From TrEMBL:
CDD domains: KISc_C_terminal (cd01366). This is Kinesin-like protein. ATP binds at residues 530-537. Residues 447-785 form the Kinesin motor domain. It comes from Nelumbo nucifera.
Length: 806
């Protein structure tokens, strides 16, 4: 009985079987074969196939009589009979009781009944045991399979655990590395923030200096203007004074000549007067002598009269002597007569002389009058001359003053000019610093930079009002552009705006630093966007055969080769690899493939037969195009000939908008690897120069057939580009880079850590104003896009490191 019990289901007092904690092993046991085990209850096994007997629940501690009744009521083949421990124990403890000690018959009947019950019980137990054995067998099988599974799972778990452990170890390592990097990045970030702050401060200071300089410049310009005006007015006055001076000098010389002639006349008149005076004096002398003679004659007459009287008296007395006296008298009389005649004559001549004298006196008076009037005139002239001389002196003085003032002004102007030159120099320096700071800020901000270039009007362009203007305010100078469309003005500001008169050199100067950074290990991407015929190819490629009209690509390459050459002195050695491709109708074409002979070469959908040009980006953000021809280049000459080869292979066509329209996106890539033997440094830069195909309206392009297909493909890829830009600008989680070959190829430039610059080319043609507005709006969106912060690919050279891209 004890050995049998081993295979029996647990009795109510036995400890319940621990349920399996493996869910799957429980699940594997069919529901109808599961049993409930509870205290005080015995649940029979479910039937195993043959009979399906439900176990009923029997209460423990049942009365033996009840048990007996119960058993007696049971059917004879024990079907449906269930025994409990108590029933069995009651059955085993049952005593045969007769009516009396000798009631053997009754006892015998009881015994028979008891044996029957025992048989029934044994049969039930045997069945039960059988069932249990079967079930045990099944359970064992199940247990085995579960064990196998368990072992397998355990094995798997062990393997997984191993894997997980190794992953955990790697993750821990990564974590440590990341933490290290994170702290480094944090430190870098802090340093960058610090330097940004410092640069911000410096920028503010520079802005202040610039503002004060601008103010000073303005003041200086104002001063210069007023000085110029003053100089002009002084010059004017000086001129007028000089004219006045010359007229005065002329007048003076005229007066001098007049004075000379007047002097001459005066001299002549004085001479005449002197002669007349002399004459007069001689006449006067003569007159005086005549007067004297007359007086003496009168005296002698008086004497004679006296003598006559004396003689007459004497006549009386001296009659003898009378005759003589008469004769004397007659003689005397004759003499008197003669003298009288002479006196008369003299008197006549004296009268004549006095008339002449009077005349002469009148003449002299007139001459004296003339003389005095001339003297007066001379005095007046002298006074005038003195005044003129004074004036002249004053004029000379003022001229001298003006001259000194002029010299002073000249000196001031010179000072101002040197100040201006200094200010200009300072402004240029400040502008350089501003640009550098601006670049740094942009680098820290991680924005795509946008330069706008407006091409000049071409003979084929439409005529009308000028639609493009440039603001002149200080903050928008050189950075703003205004577009006029149907009377309303749209203002845009970019990092730089080049007007139609900007030369290729002017444009290159602005990007040369960016190109240089490719040599320093940055990924640089410059692409030109714009309506067809707006000058993208001119900007990127230009006319390489003409030194002045060379575009950015040849100029950038020249700079890179020159700079790499000059860096050899510092121990740098560079290796350059060039590749060129075009995306035409969503298909990549290798422009340097030796199998290509020209644009019309027969190609498969994917380019040259058998080649799969698939784009892939690696973890470092480097782009690889499988099967693409990559050429090692050492000189600018080599690259130039490759560019020529590519230009010949490129798909171009004639459209209504452009004679030589690019029908594909052209991508030039230069990979630069630099190693410094002395410092063990390594840098890996990439320069991507991209000339996009021009956007155009189908209605305007007038395209049909293949051209229409091309135009649709171009517009689709450009619309994918704008979708990407919009998603980036909105910082959406999903950016649809994979929607076109162009956007997928540009993914590291648009969403990565490269330095990216976009040229938006604009046509000034009034009929293209709609397209220009679209381009400018798109460019403004691009300018607002944040990409990653440019990262330099530089490291210390590992002992066996090699170039890893190609
Ligand atoms: N800055 C400029 N100075 C002088 N000529 C220019 C300038 N920009 C463009 N052009 C002239 O304008 C015409 C169109 O320019 P270009 O072919 O570069 O345009 P595009 O934008 O590349 O057009 P597409 O997208 O159709 O290829 C050319 O004849 C070019 O020489």
């Amino acid at each position: 009985m004890a050995s049998r019990n081993q295979n029996k289901p647990p009795l109510p007092n036995a400890p319940p079987r621990s349920p399996s904690n493996k869910k799957d092993s429980i699940d594997e046991v069919p529901i109808d074969k599961r049993r409930k085990i509870g205290s005080g209850k015995m649940v029979g096994p479910a039937t195993t196939g043959r009979t399906r007997q439900a176990f009923s629940v029997v209460n423990a501690g049942q009365d033996p009589a009840v048990t007996s009744d119960y058993i007696s009521n049971a059917s004879s083949d024990c079907g449906g009979i269930e025994f409990t421990k108590e029933v069995v124990e009651a059955l085993l403890n049952e005593k045969m009781k007769g009516k009396n000690k000798f009631d053997y018959k009754g006892k015998c009947e009881q015994l028979t009944e008891y044996v029957k019950k025992l048989r029934l019980c044994i049969k039930w137990l045997q069945e039960l045991e059988e069932n249990y054995l079967l079930e045990q067998e099944k359970l064992r099988n199940m247990l085995e399979s579960v064990n196998i599974k368990c072992a397998e799972t355990e094995e798997q778990m062990k393997n997984r655990e191993g894997e997980l452990n190794s992953i955990i170890v790697e993750l821990k390592k990564d974590f440590a590395l990341l933490q290290e990097r994170f702290t480094k990045e944090e430190l870098d970030k802090l340093a960058a923030i610090d330097s940004l702050k410092r640069e911000e401060e410096a920028r503010v200071a520079v802005e202040k200096v610039r503002a004060s300089l601008a103010e000073e410049l303005e003041k200086a310009q104002h001063e210069q203007l007023t000085a110029n005006q003053k100089i002009a007015s002084l010059n004017d006055m000086y001129k007028r004074l000089q004219e006045y001076n010359t007229s005065l000098q002329q007048y003076n010389s005229k007066l001098q000549t007049e004075l000379a002639t007047a002097n001459e006349t005066l001299k002549r008149v004085e001479k005449e007067k002197a002669a007349i005076v002399e004459n007069l004096s001689t006449l006067r002398g003569h007159y005086n002598s005549l007067q004297d003679q007359l007086i003496s004659s009168r005296a002698s007459r008086d004497e004679a009269i006296k003598q006559k009287e004396a003689l007459t008296a004497e006549v009386g007395c001296l009659r003898g002597e009378l005759q003589q006296v008469r004769e004397d008298r007659d003689r005397q009389l004759a003499q008197v007569q003669a003298l009288t005649a002479e006196i008369v004559k003299y008197e006549e001549s004296t009268g004549k002389s006095s008339a002449e004298l009077d005349k002469l006196i009148v003449k002299s008076n007139a001459l004296e009058d003339t003389c005095s009037s001339q003297r007066e005139q001379i005095q007046i002239l002298r006074r005038q001359l003195a005044a003129a001389n004074e004036k002249l002196q004053r004029a000379d003085l003022s001229a001298l003053e003006t001259k000194t003032e002029f010299e002073e002004q000249k000196r001031v102007i010179h000072d101002l000019q040197s100040h201006l030159a200094e200010a200009d120099f300072k402004i240029i320096e400040a502008e350089k610093l501003r640009k550098k700071l601006h670049n740094t800020i942009l680098e820290l901000k991680g924005n795509i930079r946008v330069f706008c270039r407006v091409r000049p009007l071409l003979p084929d362009d439409g005529v009308g009002v000028e639609v493009i203007s440039y603001p002149t305010s200080l903050e928008a100078l050189g950075r703003g552009i205004d577009l006029l469309q149907s009377g309303s003005k749209h203002a845009f500001t970019f990092d730089k705006v080049f007007s139609h008169d900007a030369s290729q050199e002017d444009v290159f100067v602005e990007i040369s630093q960016l190109v240089q950074s490719a040599l320093d290990g940055y990924k640089v991407c410059i692409f030109a966007y714009g309506q067809t015929g707006s000058g993208k190819t001119y900007t990127m490629m230009g006319r390489p055969e003409n030194a002045e009209q060379k575009g950015l690509i040849p100029r950038s390459l020249e700079q890179i080769f020159q700079a790499s050459q000059s860096l050899t002195a510092q121990g740098w050695k560079y290796k350059m690899q060039a590749s060129m491709l075009e995306i035409y109708n969503e298909t990549i074409r290798d422009l340097l493939s030796p199998n290509r002979s020209g644009p019309d070469t027969l190609r498969t959908e994917n380019g040259v037969a058998g080649k799969q040009y698939a784009i892939k980006h690696d973890a470092n953000g480097n782009t690889h195009v499988s099967d693409l021809t990559i050429v090692d280049v050492c000189t600018i000459k080599e690259v130039s000939s490759l560019l020529q080869q590519a230009a010949q292979s490129r798909s171009v066509g004639r459209t209504q908008m452009n004679e030589q329209s690019s029908r594909s996106h052209f991508v030039f890539t230069l990979r630069i690897s630099g190693t410094n033997e002395s410092t063990e440094q390594q840098v890996q830069g990439v320069l991507n120069l991209i000339d996009l195909a021009g956007s155009e309206r189908l209605s305007k392009s007038g395209a049909t057939g293949d051209r229409l297909k091309e135009t649709q493909a171009i517009n689709k890829s450009l619309s994918c580009l704008s979708d990407v830009i919009f998603a980036l600008a909105k910082k959406e989680d999903h950016v649809p880079f994979r929607n076109s070959k162009l956007t997928y190829l540009l993914q590291p430039c648009l969403g990565g850590d490269s330095k990216t610059l976009m040229f938006v080319n604009i046509s000034p043609d009034p009929t293209s104003v709609g397209e220009s507005l679209c381009s400018l709006r798109f460019a403004a969106r691009v300018n607002a896009c944040e990409i990653g912060i440019p990262r330099r690919q530089a490291n210390l050279r590992a002992p066996d490191s090699r170039l890893s891209y190609g």
